[in-house]
Amino acid sequence: MNNKYDSLKITVLIIVIFVAGFFIYKNMANRNGSQGGSVINSSTNIKFEKGIWVANGIDQPVLKEVLASTDVSGVFLRYKWKTLNPSAESYDWSMLDTALSAIKTSGKPAKLGIVAGGETPDWVYNSSGIRTLTFKEFPLGGKKNANSFTLRIAVPWDTAYIEDWNTFVQAMASHLHQAGTYDTVITVMINGIARETAETRLPYQKSITNIAGEISTDAPALWTTVGYTPDKVVNAWKAIANNYKNNFPDKSLAVAAITPTQAFPWMTASGEPANTFEETRVNVMQRIVNSCVADFHSQCIAQFNSLTATSGELPVVLDAGRRGATIGWQVQLENQAFPECLKNHTTCDQNAFSAILTNGFKNGSFVEVSPRNVIAYPEAIHAIAESMGN
Questions:
Q1: Which value, in Å, is the radius of gyration of the alpha carbons in the chain?
Q2: Closest Cα partner for 353 from 318, 323, 327, 385?
Q3: Which of 167-172's residues contact partners 24+ apart within 8 Å by CB, and which partners?
Q4: How would residue 40 be classed by pLDDT, with cut points 50, 70 and 90?
Q5: Contacts of 121 (CB under 8 A, 6+ apart)
Q6: How confident is the model at residue 41 (pLDDT cuts 50, 70, 90)?
Q7: In whole angstroms, what is the distance from residue 17 CA to residue 131 CA?
C-alpha cells in the first residue's frame, strides 16, 4: 500500500510540476512576462509596448474615449520641441503633465516622443555654432496634389545643436522624476534628427516639379553646402541616443524607421549626391537601426509607421526583430488619422480595420492606432485586444 501511495504522490507531484512549468513558460514568453500594456524583460525589468496603443495627436489632449477604453493598452504622447521648450532657459510642461496625470490615473502606461526638425524652437536657430537650412518639399512627390511645405532644419551634427537637444532631454527626464510621472512612461522615442514628425529622417527630395508647376528644393545639393556625410548623421544619432540611455536607463528606447529610400538624401559616403539610392552604397536608416540593436540590445524598439492591411512590414524593422529588438507598427495615419466614415457619419467598416490590425500582429508586439480609430472601430479593436488577452 505504501508503495502504491508513494507512486501516487510522485505522479501527482510530476503533474503539478508540469502544469506549473507550463504556466511559468507561458508567462516568460514574449520577453519573459507581461503587465497591462507592456511586456517585461525578466533580466532587466525594462518594459516594452504590447497590444494596441494610441498614437496621440501632436500637442493634442488625450481623448476621454482613449483613457476609458479597456482595449487600449497605452498612449504614445507626442509634442513639439518648441512647445515644451519655448526659450533657452524655460520649459512649459503643462500639456505633458496634464496628459501623463490622466494616463497615470487610468492605469495605462505611456510612451513619449518629441518632434524636432521643423518643430525646433526659434531660440535654437539663434544659438552660436548652429547652422540652419530651409527646404521646400512636396508630399507624395508632388504627384497627387499641389500641397507643399517649408521646413527650417538645424544641421543635426553641429555640436551646439546636439548639446541643446541633449540638455532638453535631460531636463525632461528630471521633470518627470519631480512630477512623479517618470514611472508612468515605459518607452521613450529617440528623437532629435527629424523632418516634421517623430520619425528618424531628414529632407531628401531632389528638385522636382509638382502638379501645380512649383519646384522643390534640391535637398542633396543643399546638404552638400554644410558638408553632409552619412557618417556625420549616424554619429550624431549615436550621441543623441546615448544621452537618452543615460537619462532613461530603465526605459525601452524606440526608433521610428521609414522606407530607407525616403529617409535621408541620396549621398555617397564622401558626401556627393547620387543619382539613385543604390549608387549611395550607404543605407543610413539601416545603420541607425543596427546601432540601436547593437548598443541597446533588448532595450531597443524598432517600428515602422505605415501599416495597412496588405503592407507596412519594413525589412529594416523585421531584421531588428530577428536580432533581439521588440518590433511594432503604426497604422498609416495619412488615411486613418480621421476616418472618412466619421467625417461622413457613415457605418465604419470593422472588418477592414481588423485586417490592418491582424497584419500588424503577425510579427509585431504592438500596433499604434489614431485616437479617432478608437471611436470609429471599437468592435475591431475589442476583438483583437480580447484575442491577445487584454
A1: 23
A2: 385
A3: 168/81, 168/84, 168/85, 168/114, 169/114, 169/240, 169/243, 169/244, 169/247, 170/243, 170/247, 171/85, 171/91, 172/84, 172/112, 172/114, 172/247
A4: confident
A5: 81, 82, 85, 86, 87
A6: low
A7: 65
Tell me how far apart the alpha carbons of residues 271 and 267 are, in angstroms, rounded to a whole number: 5
**Full-model pTM:** 0.88
Task: Please name which of 202, 81, 80 lies closest in space to residue 133, comparing C-alpha atoms.
Answer: 202
pLDDT, one tens digit per residue, over 253-296 is 999 999 999 999 999 999 999 999 999 999 999 999 999 999 99
CA 173 to mean position of chain CA atoms: 18
Task: Please tell me the distance from the alpha carbon of residue 219 to that of residue 137, in angstroms, as a whole number.
Answer: 9
Q: Which CATH superfamily is domain 35-387 in?
A: Glycosidases (3.20.20.80)
Mean pLDDT of the chain: 88
In one-letter notation, the amino acid at residue 389 is G
| DSSP line for 102-150 | HHHHHT--EEEEEE-GGG--HHHHTSTT--EEEEEE-GGGGSS----EE
Res 39: pLDDT: 67
Contact 139, 216 (CB under 8 A): no
CA–CA separation, 95 vs 363, rounded Å? Answer: 34
Residues 6+ apart with CB under 8 A from 146: 210, 211, 212, 214
Query: Could you identify the residue written with the cell 552604397?
Result: 281
Locus of grid cell 526659434: 122
**Kind of pairing between the strands at 326-331 and 366-369:** parallel
What totals of helices (H) and strands (E) does the chain contain, helices first? 16, 13
pLDDT in tens, 93-144: 999 999 999 999 999 999 999 999 999 999 999 888 899 999 998 877 666 6
**Residue 149 pLDDT:** 84
Domain ranges of the chain: 1-32, 35-387
